[in-house]
Each structure stands twice: as C-alpha cells, then as structure tokens.
C-alpha cells in the first residue's frame, strides 16, 4: 500500500475583520511553547500571512483525515492566542497587502521576482505519494499529466482576488502560473532525463535551487515520493481526503501501466496549459477538457472518467466506496469556490464569507 502525506497552506486572518494578518512568526513561536511538542508540524511560507502544516505519511485514509482535521484545529488554537484565526482559503477574498518573510530565501525571491513574488499570497494543497524509485516516479509523472487539471477543477477554492470576483474558480492557479518554472511539463521518458532537465533549469541562474522547480507534479527533493502540487487548499477537509485518495490511485494506475509497457499519452504542453486554464476558469460548473480526447466535455463526465480510470486501484486499496460517496457529495454540494460565491450571494459581505470559512476550517 502506497503511503500518502498532505501539505496544506492556510491563511492567517484577523479574528474580527477577516483581513489577512502577517503573524506566521508569532504563531510558530506560540506553537513552539506548546507542551504537546508538535511545533515541527507547522512551517512558515513565502508570505507572513500564511501557515503550512504537513501530515505524516499514512496508508489509511481515515487516519489521514484525522490528521488533517487535527492540525487545522491546532493551527486555529495557536492563532487564537493572537486574536487571529486560520482559513482554508486559496486566496484572500478581502483586499490585502502581502508581507514577504524576512528570511534569506524569501528576500532573494522578492529581489529577483519583484511583483510576482510580492503578490504571491496563495494557498495550495500538495499531496505526496510514495514511489519505489526515481524511475518509477518519472514514469508516473509522464502518465498522470493529462489528469492533473481534473484534480485542479475539483479543488478550486479561490474565486476572489483583492476584494473582487476574479471570474475564475481558481485564481490561485493563474497567480501561481506567473512563476517561470510552474505548470505542466513534457514527457521525460526516464529519471536521467528528468534530473538533467532540473539541473539545467537551476544552472540557468533563473532559479535559486531545485526547490524552485514548481512543476504541477514533480519528484520530491526531500522524500521518496511524487508530489502533486496542482490543487488549491480545499475548504472542506473531506475534499482534501478525496483528492489524496484519487491521487494515490492515479499514481498506482500509472505505475501499473508503466510495468505493463503502456506508453504515456503524448498530449503537448500547449494543450495541457489550455486544459489547466479551463479547469481554473470553470471548476466543476461548466465544461472541462477531457484528458483522453482533449475536447470539451461536461465537468461531471470528466470527473467520473477520472474515477473510472483509477477504479481498479481504488478497489485494491479498499477505497472505492468511500471515494464514490465523497465524490457524489462534492458534485452535489460543490467545492470551495461555489460555496464562497453562494455565501456572498446570501450575506452580501466578503467579511462574512471569510468568517464562515474560518468556522468551517476550525471544524
């Protein structure tokens, strides 16, 4: 059974106004004083209005769900000491002036990337799935490429930007795409070719190090995993768990195809960029680009195509029923982008949108 770990980036907001607050250092300090000794779970991010946590590798999805809920609650508890809270929002609905961290790496990014770095207050969800070798990992990356926009569409949770409706379901994806190394990639064919490409990118001088290789999916440079980085942080932890379940099954399906000699599809990067744009624009509310045909199809049909593609792996891991039920609930109630817009229609206030999202994040 492949293990799965999740990293979630959360937005730190004022408990009364809902406006983002640059408190990551203070929250980390509060966590370090906690007698539970779990401060190493939390990390700072590029912007001081963000806080990240990482789960341990898990093989049972129920255990993963428990961890995600636990660390969200712990993050909220630490923030509350500072009259703040956390929200699982991929962008701030309210206007914000982001504040880049003071560390050497963050200041380097600020100096070299200017406004791209300054505006980069976005919160994502990264899912790590264990692989046996770099060769297997790259074979997986080559075969999951066309399915990544579907995962993005399911996770979309960033319709607002600087107090306005962006017109997108994931504006985070559009902002994140400004980094020169972000987005979909070509078929590599081998681990040697993957590492050669990464080394060449760093040697160009544009990137500081391998950690700045922001592919939608990559080999982790810290763990024996593939890291799928395409998703928004999800408002509801059940959506995060559903994504992790489908991603593990997608990795397993791709690895089986590789062992059986099934070649990856050769969709070009240009088409994959269009599919990602459509997913960010439409979420689950309209058509998506079908990963097999690269033609428009209703979002529900495309999501169910992903489910059918990985069904055998879900059956083998014992996750098929839970995934089916969670997927049906997501399609019925909607993801974070739909919920945020419905909250705005109901309350007429972006502050109330943030307040409700804080409550949902805290659980």
Describe the model.
- This protein is an alpha+beta fold.
- The protein has a single domain, classed as Creatine Kinase, Chain A, domain 2, CATH 3.30.590.20.
- 48% of the residues lie in helices and 14% in strands.
- The chain has 14 helices and 11 strands.
- Strands 1, 2, 3, 4, 5, 8 and 9 form a 7-stranded antiparallel β-sheet that branches.
- The longest helix has 23 residues, at 237-259.
- It is globular, with a radius of gyration of 19 Å.
- The protein starts with a strand and ends with a helix.
- The model has no long low-confidence stretch (mean pLDDT 96).
Features:
363 residues, alpha+beta, 7-stranded antiparallel β-sheet, two-stranded antiparallel sheet, 14 helices, 11 strands, 48% helix, globular
Q: Work out the helicity level.
A: 40-55%
- What is the rounded Rg? 19 Å
Q: Which CATH top level class fits?
A: Alpha Beta
Largest sheet: 7 strands, antiparallel
Oligomer, anyone? single chain
| Topology, number of strands | 11
Summarize the structure.
With 363 residues, this protein is of the alpha+beta class. It has helices at 24-32, 61-80, 104-113, 115-118, 134-144, 148-155, 171-176, 191-203, 237-259, 269-282, 299-317, 320-333, 336-347, 350-362, and strands at residues 4-14, 42-43, 50-54, 84-87, 124-130, 160-161, 164-165, 217-219, 225-232, 287-289, 296-298. The protein has one domain (98-362): Creatine Kinase, Chain A, domain 2 (2-Layer Sandwich).
């Amino acid at each position: 059974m492949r293990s799965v770990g999740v990293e979630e980036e959360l937005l730190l907001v004022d408990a009364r106004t809902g406006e983002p607050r640059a408190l990551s250092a203070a929250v980390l300090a509060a966590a370090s004083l906690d007698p539970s000794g779990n401060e190493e779970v939390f990390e700072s991010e590029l912007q001081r209005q963000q806080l990240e946590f990482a789960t341990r590798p898990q093989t049972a999805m129920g255990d993963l769900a428990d961890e995600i809920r636990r660390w969200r609650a712990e993050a909220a508890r630490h923030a509350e000491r500072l009259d703040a809270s956390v929200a699982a929002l991929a962008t701030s609905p309210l206007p914000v002036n982001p504040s880049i961290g003071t560390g050497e790496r963050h200041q380097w990014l600020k100096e070299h990337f200017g406004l791209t770095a300054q505006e980069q207050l976005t919160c994502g969800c990264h899912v790590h799935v264990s692989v046996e070798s770099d060769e297997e990992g790259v074979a997986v990356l080559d075969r999951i490429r066309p399915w990544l926009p579907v995962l993005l569409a399911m996770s979309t949770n960033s319709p607002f930007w600087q107090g306005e409706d962006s017109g997108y379901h994931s504006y985070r994806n559009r902002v994140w795409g400004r980094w020169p190394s972000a987005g979909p990639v070509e078929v590599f064919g081998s681990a040697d070719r993957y590492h050669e490409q990464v080394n060449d990118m760093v040697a160009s001088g544009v990137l500081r190090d391998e950690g700045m290789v922001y592919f939608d999916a990559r080999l982790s440079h810290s763990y024996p995993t593939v890291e799928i980085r395409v998703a928004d942080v999800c408002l509801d932890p059940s959506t995060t768990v559903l994504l992790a379940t489908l991603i593990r099954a997608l990795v397993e399906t791709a690895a089986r195809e590789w062992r059986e000699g099934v070649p990856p599809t050769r969709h070009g990067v240009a088409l994959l960029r269009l599919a990602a744009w459509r997913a960010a624009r439409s979420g689950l509310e309209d058509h998506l680009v079908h990963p097999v045909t690269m033609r428009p199809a209703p979002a529900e049909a495309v999501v169910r195509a992903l489910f059918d593609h990985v069904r055998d792996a879900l059956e083998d891991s014992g996750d098929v029923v839970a995934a089916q039920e969670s997927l049906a609930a997501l399609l019925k109630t909607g993801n974070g982008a739909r919920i945020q817009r419905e909250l705005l229609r109901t309350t007429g206030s972006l502050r109330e949108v943030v307040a409700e999202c804080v409550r949902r994040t805290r659980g």
